[in-house]
Structures are given as structure tokens and as C-alpha cells.
Design goal:
It is a single chain. A two-stranded antiparallel ribbon has the order 1-2. The protein has helices at about 15-20, 40-55, and strands spanning about 1-5, 10-15. It is built from two helices and two strands; from the N terminus they run E-E-H-H. The longest helix is centred in the C-terminal third of the chain and has 15 residues, at about 40-55. It is an alpha+beta fold. This is DUF2197 domain-containing protein.
């Protein structure tokens, strides 16, 4: 399934979850509107979040 990233607008392919599972009782159905973020934007957001959580270095 092809989706569009909400941050950069890049199209990317997402593997359909219903095709990978054999038993439908294991998972609840997908919500109708789900947010799609590409792998590059996920990595960028993770890097920025990690950077903000690091303590600041003392000056001097």
C-alpha cells in the first residue's frame, strides 16, 4: 500500500498488516484515519528528540 508522509509529502510503500497476519482475532482493525510518517522523517524526529533530552554541557 502506498501512502504519503504528512511531514515531507514523500510517497512510500507500507506493508499491509492484514496480509502478514493469519489470524484476524489477534489485532483490532486499523483506524480509518491513520497518520503516516516516512522512515526518514521518523529518524529525523527521533534524532531531534534525543538531542533535546541530553544535558547541556557547561561553558568554560
Amino acid at each position: 500500500m502506498e501512502k504519503r508522509c504528512i511531514l515531507c509529502g514523500r510517497k512510500f510503500v507500507v506493508e499491509d498488516m492484514s496480509a502478514t497476519t493469519e489470524d484476524d482475532d489477534l489485532f483490532t482493525p486499523e483506524p480509518k484515519k491513520n497518520v503516516s510518517i516516512c522512515e526518514l522523517c521518523q529518524n529525523k524526529l527521533r534524532h531531534e528528540a534525543d538531542k533535546t533530552q541530553k544535558p547541556t554541557k557547561p561553558v568554560g
